[in-house]
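R.M. (postdoc): so does anyone remember the format we settled on? I'll just put the structure tokens first.
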């Protein structure tokens, strides 16, 4: 009879997802200190991900969000977080299970974590994917029409979706 082995890889993965959870909890309580900001990449088809249909269509595999200047109502539970972001001046509520996260990065301190798929990755066939109503007509990819604001006073800084390829070793 084969004995179960201790799965240290899963233990480490759970502990590192706990780092993400703790960081988000602290930000939800005190805000982002200093120059800290987060890039979070997640699987859009993962069970429990709630995003607007137009974002799921635009990002059928993975999507990266940035928590830096414009995010609202960050709520963190043991298994997921929810946040409201602005996409072309339309506020959208996103709910993302920690198990859906594939990458977490804080470039201000050169810190990044990459995760393996956890649990059931995709919605089962025939199951309705949780989604929010689509944004008004004319909504496009976040940041597509934004102008770089620089550090000029009076201008509002805007978030945008970016890829993390620049951070990955090749």
């Amino acid at each position: 009879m084969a004995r179960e082995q201790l799965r240290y890889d899963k233990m480490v993965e759970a502990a590192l997802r706990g780092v993400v959870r703790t960081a988000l909890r602290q930000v939800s309580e005190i805000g982002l200190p200093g120059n800290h900001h987060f890039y979070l990449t997640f699987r859009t088809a993962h069970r429990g991900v709630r995003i607007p249909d137009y974002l799921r269509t635009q990002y059928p595999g993975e999507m990266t969000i940035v928590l830096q200047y414009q995010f609202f109502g960050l709520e963190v539970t043991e298994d997921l977080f929810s946040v409201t972001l602005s996409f072309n001046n339309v506020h959208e509520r996103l709910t993302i299970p920690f198990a859906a996260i594939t990458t977490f990065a804080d470039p201000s301190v050169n810190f990044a974590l990459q995760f393996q798929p956890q649990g059931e990755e995709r919605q089962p066939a025939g199951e309705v994917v949780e989604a929010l109503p689509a944004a008004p007509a004319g909504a496009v990819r976040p940041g597509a029409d934004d102008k770089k604001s620089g550090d000029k006073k009076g201008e509002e800084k805007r978030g945008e979706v970016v890829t993390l390829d620049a951070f990955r070793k090749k």
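R.M.: ...and that's the designed sequence above, right after the tokens. Also worth knowing: DSSP finds two helices and nine strands in the chain. Confidence is low (pLDDT under 50) at residues 121-164.
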